[in-house]
Amino acid sequence: MSKRPEWLDNAVFYEIYPQSFKDTDGDGIGNISGITEKLPYIKDLGCNAIWINPCFDSPFGDAGYDVSDYLKVAPRYGTNEDLINLFDKAHSMGLHVILDLVPGHTSWEHPWFKESMKAERNEFTDRYVWTDSVWEEPEGYGSLRGISDRDGSCAVNFFTHQPALNYGFYKPNRPWQQPTDSEGAIATREALKDIMRFWLSKGCDGFRVDMAGSLVKNDEDGKGTIALWNNIFEFLDKEFPEAAMVSEWGEPRLSLAGGFHMDFLLHFGESHYNDLFRCERPFFEGLGDASEFVKKYKDSRARSGGKGLICIPSGNHDMDRLAKHIHRERLKLAFAFLLSAPGAPYIYYGDEIGMNYVEGLKSVEGGYGRTGSRSPMQWDKSKNAGFSSAPSEKLYIPIDPSPDRPDVTSQLGDEKSLLNEVKKLIALRLKYKPLQSLGNIDFVCDGAPGNPLAYIRSLDGERIFVAINPANDPAEIKVNIPAAFNEIIYQSGNGGNFSGNICRVEARSAVWLRERDRG
Ligand code: NOJ
């Protein structure tokens, strides 16, 4: 892992899907000025860092994950100056801003791709992964074929309109498969550095990296991609040591070896992340089993040598909303976990008020089933929930039509709301260091059926005991260490308490206990 920027030690991120956050010019779609306008809200929530989904020029076949100009803010969101102004304002308020970097593919409308489709050799001929005959497809990948003068098929990385950039093959076994140290692969890598350099020198604080593990092909155990990232981190460490890098990889042991400071647990991969939040019987709905998650999580931490941060997000633009599977007061329990876990927490916009997954929406910009998690932020009870002044039928995605949809203003005025609870939890996290990114975690109880989830967070001799019991019955946990966790710093539901070595946690409750007098 490259040297971690210090600001990550207590970072709490807020993910913003720019289309749906706040529209200030009445065209029905969110924009950069809308984000700038709402910085005080994010600050008041307690978050100190922001991740913005791709906001670059794009034909928007995949909501901006199909970039056609990495160096230009999409006009529908504003200008580069608006984004730089956002960085400046955020910094003046103590907030950091990371952008979304999509290194694995571009849009098929990117000028690089148009050049690479030409029959005549040029600077971009090797920018993408092409076979040397249209009759041969790149095995294991989808392909684009029959659309170019060039005789070849181009590998795709995700949707068909997202051709795969060429970083080489770890084990080339066809003549057209270039090694990772070939001229073309190196040129792509250097072009990626230029994009990073461009935004970092304008004030951006780092990147969330899309499909970070997908870059080198034929690279089963990730060695080629790890070496590629090691090279990129050499450049970052030298030129931008304060830049924070989080990967969409879902395998911390690989990502952190690549140099990333943080990796996400995701809805795919081996982490069992969604045993907690999104499955038939989610743990936080009081039904399920967290033990496989705990096992994998401990294993991931051990295998990544305690280096780097493993980030557990509340959700993101690709998953069902948290509130689709976890209901009412139990959402508070999910946040009592998310905000007391190691690594930097990521709150997906709107999850802090329990926004619904909006059922039955028509797919927007390649969202498909994800569209229901991308609906406009609900600020208040005014027209379009305060998101936009556009006619409702002009909105990018319709607003949640449910009569009891949550909104920020109402929840701010309600002491018992989820929003106020999340604010309270973040404030406590920022107050007590053991709860922050680097504090250790020792599991006391693994959330197997009938058991709560309980762990001790510790740092520099300070300890905090966390127990969360989403089930309908109270639970007792035996803690085999002499401790005096006698200061309740947080409780939800009916909380819990120690009597000797036994901690009782009430049904549908959580408690955070601080050790005051060691005994
Ligand atoms: C992961 C992104 O989160 C998702 O939204 C996108 O569609 C794919 N990568 C392709 O870039």
Number of separate strands:
20
Largest sheet: 8 strands, parallel
Using the 3D structure, state the CATH architecture of the largest domain.
Alpha-Beta Barrel
Strand portion, in percent? Answer: 15-25%
Count of discrete domains: 3
Write out the distinct hetero groups bound to the structure.
1-deoxynojirimycin
CATH level 1 class label of the largest domain: Alpha Beta
Distance between the first and last residues' Cα: 37 Å
Radius of gyration: 23 Å
Proportion of helical residues? 10-25%
Number of helices: 13
Which structural category do the helix and sheet elements fall into? alpha/beta
Q: Characterize the overall form.
A: globular
CATH superfamily of the largest domain: Glycosidases
What is the residue-mean pLDDT, rounded to a whole number?
96
